Each structure stands twice: as C-alpha cells, then as structure tokens.
Amino acid sequence: MAPMEGVTGFVYRNTFAHFFDSIDKYYTPFISPGEHKSFKSRELKDVLPENNAGLNVAVQMLTNNAEHFIVTAQKMKDFGYKEVNLNLGCPSGTVVSKGKGSGFLSFPEKLDRFLDEIYNGLADTGLDISVKTRIGRYEPDEFYELLEIYNKYPISELIVHPRVQKDMYKNKPRMELFDYAVEHSKNPLVYNGDICTINDYEGFAGQYLKNKPQDVSCNGAADGAGGEITAVMLGRGLISNPGLAGQIVNGKLPDRNTFRAFYDALVDAYRAEIPDEKNVVFKLKEILFYMVNMSGDKDAYWKKIRKADSLMELNTAARHAIASGDVQ
Ligand SMILES: Cc1cc2nc3c(=O)[nH]c(=O)nc-3n(C[C@H](O)[C@H](O)[C@H](O)COP(=O)(O)O)c2cc1C
Which range, of 94-108, 221-235, 267-281, 305-319, averages the lowest pLDDT? Predict the structure, then answer.
C-alpha cells in the first residue's frame, strides 16, 4: 500500500487490514523529522508500535538533512521497525521549494552525499533503507544520473514512480525510464503508478513479470544484471477499490457487503479518533473521493458526498455509492 498523506494513516491501515488481505507491506505517509528531532503528535501517533500491531509497516521520511534522517531512523528501530523509506517523490510546491521530496532530485551531488551519510550512519543498525523516487524534477532524462547514484548504495527496494515533479499526477507514467531501471538498477525494484484496475495490473504483469502474472517476484532482466521487480505499490487504485490487491493475488473480489462493512468500520474508527464530527466528515470525504470510482455514476455520487454537511448525510450518500455499480 502506497503512502498517501491524509488517507493511509494508522486508522485507515488497521481498518483496511481487518477486512482485506493481500497487502504485503504498508508505507506510512511521510513524517518530517525536523530540527527539534522529535515528532509532531500526529506523526508520533501514526508510528507508535501499538497503533501498528500485526502489520508489516515501513516508515517513510521526508527530509534532506542526513542527521535528522539518521536520528529518526534509529528511533524507528527502537520502536521495532525493520525498514525506513526516503521520500524523493513528493511534488508539492512547499516541499519542493525546500529541496525535499522530488525537489531533492535537482541536487544530485547533495543527494549523493546525503545517501552516503545515511547508509554509513545506519549500517550497523541492520535497518533496511528503501527509496521512493520520481524520475526527475523537470525532465525524464535526469533519471540516468539519479540511477547511477542509487546504484552506489544498498537500497533495499527502489520504488520508482516514473513521472517527473512537473507532471504532478498528470500524463502517463514514462515507462521507458522504468525499462531503463529494469535494465540498469543494481537494486531490487518496485513499480508504482496508475495501477488502478485488475486490467492495469495484468497489462503490467504481462510485460514485466515474465513468470505467472500472480507472481510479482521475478527477474525483469534477461541476463540477471538489472533490477529484480519485487513488488508493485498500489495507491489511488487501492483506495478506490480496497479489494484490488486481493483481486490481483486471488482473482477474487469481496462482495458489496464487505465494502459496506469496511466503510462503516472506518466511520466508527475515525469517530473514536477525531473528536469533532466536522473533521470526521472531512476525513471520510478524502477517502470517498477515491471510493466513488467503484460506483455506477461516480460524478452524481461524488456530488452528493461532497455536499454532505453532517455525518448522517454523508453516510447515506456513501452507502448508496458503495452499493451501486461494479468494480471493473
Ligand atoms: C493524496 C495523496 C497523498 C500522497 N501522499 C504521499 C506520501 O505521503 N508519500 C509518498 O511517497 N507519496 C505520496 N503520494 C503518492 C503515492 O504514494 C503514489 O506514488 C501516487 O499516488 C502514484 O501511485 P498510484 O497511481 O498507484 O496512486 C500521495 C498521493 C496522493 C494522491
């Protein structure tokens, strides 16, 4: 499950895992280790071990300061986590202007030094350090130099979202650069981007996963020199259709009642977590924005959901949307 700020926090992850299986690993939305070297309370809550019991979770960090990364990674190790992840993909203006997320990709030398420091600084901890990257800030061909840098370090998994920052989430993933990674990466690869339906997955698997489509783990390069594709990471498609991973792995989709029960459980879980009902409504809308993709007439349902003021109104609109239509 991809990290999605505002969506895939611990409440969502735990509720999801209760109803749906087939997710091997959950990535937390990014936390930003700051100068204070401690966490905001929202960030701390999201990574507290008791809030992630029984889930395989990797903690994502957004920073360009190696010391902050190292100190926080060590705390994550003390919490019992086995993997930390570096965010080199966030396209948001405020993040990029500070040289973080995909903004860091414009400074290859600095990035190289940063990686050198964190891989050296954390070598003794046994922590896996994975990287989630876009292919560049402005132009796709920035990726050649970036991959050369990544190849110098033992990146546990290089998760590639083949868009540049400028693309935001528009345009199509630039698969020719992912192909380049498959051929030239020395580290295991994870593909991320626009796998929203079972058809999208099968298209990807047919081309990149040369063994059986269900087997996400196989070598993409004929001579074994390139990066092995160890997983696909699912974001918006999975929030739209929480049964997508199960559909990929088992070929089966849960019935409508499961989606409805999942939604009801999310409502209860957010109500228990968020005191103000207005904020519960706001939070659920962020999720329903994706879930309406499953419904018959998504524009009409989204209009009703968007307009809902109270939780009761929202639940009525959401349940109608969930009960309608078929997942493709
Ligand atoms: C609302 C939203 C929040 C996101 N938050 C994060 C984040 O915290 N960290 C991150 O690395 N990527 C974040 N992403 C990017 C996703 O992890 C993923 O790379 C992107 O959505 C493309 O994958 P998809 O096509 O499967 O959705 C976010 C994306 C969205 C739409």
Answer: 221-235
Q: 4, 26, 232: which to mutate for ligand 1, most atoms within 8 A of CB?
A: 4
Q: Is the CB of 286 under 6 A from ligand 1?
A: no
pLDDT of res. 35: 63
pLDDT in tens, 39-84: 788 899 999 999 999 999 999 999 999 999 999 999 999 999 999 9
d(CA 84, CA 274): 27
pLDDT at 296: 81
59 lines ligand 1 (CB under 6 A): no
CA 115, CA 152: separation in Å to the nearest integer?
9
235 CB near ligand 1 (under 6 Å)? yes
Pocket lining: 134 vs ligand 1, CB cutoff 6 Å: no
pTM: 0.95
Kindly give the number of the ligand 1 atom that is closest to the alpha carbon of 163: 22
> How far is the C-alpha of 135 from the C-alpha of 202, rounded, in Å?
23
Instruction: Quickly state the pLDDT bin for 325 (edges 50, 70, 90).
Output: low
